[in-house]
């Protein structure tokens, strides 16, 4: 494999020599002398190895391996010493001499090492590597980057399995059987998340190559448009922050979203947008100049990341509670208005990228003047009820908790995306507070929401986690009827993900549910022929758990008599 080009004899030469000679043993000896290690002092030492029974092959192999290691070290050293032009000239000359041996397994690592240290491998050699699957697989990622940057389709083939793996990992977390209010989808910190395998692999594949980074972003935009899957937005932010962690300034300095993402990342870590960071974020949004509006498309994708939405929504709920205590209206709070602005930009990401109209979505005035005050009135209702409960009750009867919800609230949840998102997070908030009354009051509004957001995986994942805090309520018929019949079961037949989430919840809380209700739920949740494997698997797990809980049939035995037998007394003999 290329030895003849370098004037080195190979197996074919030996075969030809042996075919055409009269004395094979002499021919072999001559071949060994000509092609062995040309070191005079070695010749007298070789018979010593023969005496120890060490084969010549083993000796030559160990010498070869040692020389190869030395050569690899030398190549790495050349790549760091002297002037840039000189070192690369040496490496190019070495590549030219050695490339013909690239298919020879024992020499291949050296050739690959030379290519790895060259910032620009000659085009002809890159094409030869790309054309051979084994060579392509064996070459270092530094060489592959040079191939990928001019071959988007090939790079896409490499990235695609990683993107699929990433989405699958996110879905596995959302559908995990470990339901907990403390450890949920949003629990890992941003820094922990970007240590994940996919983000690390993509970061390594990109290196400092701006062209490859842009390609990955384009893949993510395209897939987000095609699937509407918001996890691609998460990956877009994680990838940028992973490069930020490694201080890859070649990319961070040219990505216009870098500083905004960095600031938002700090907010996500704290799960709250404080006043200082809110002003920074506002500065970035206000700083988008005329003619650069396209950056809004990328900013909206960063804000569409579920971790960003979660942080913004939690901050909004917290602000609303503060406003209740301050007797202040939502429209009078600049911080709250900024949170809504960013939520609106994030929720409008798909429409903006799809239409290519890079303009901030217009905020509906009624969201601020009607919907948010309505949410604040619910907070006031809770406070009022709690105070009433503590007052002495001699002079008055028990005051019932408000059971009706304004029609406008339901309408907002159906027609306004931002209102729906905030409304859902308010419901998560009251569930986490174990506020059963408020939860049952607002639950009917969730049956019909904007784009069925109440039946999205992220909301149901969080809701099922929070419902574990209300575990004792599952023994009550009224609570179960409202939750299962009034909400979950309305969508189970048409949405498989809802079916899965209900089964997850029951797997965790089945022992709390009344037996009669559990039996009817088991019938209602039985998978159909069209159900996926995940639903069938969960249902089987639930059935097994319920079977284990059934009391074993008691053995039929005669009931022992409770009467004590009287001792027989002999009759006295008649006299």
From TrEMBL:
GO cellular component entries: NELF complex
Organism of this sequence: Oceanodroma tethys
Q: Give the span(s) annotated as Disordered.
A: 549-575
Per the record, the gene is Nelfb
Provide the GO biological process annotations: negative regulation of transcription elongation by RNA polymerase II
Q: What is this protein called?
A: NELFB factor
One Pfam entry name: COBRA1
**Please, which domain of life does this record's source organism belong to?**
Eukaryota
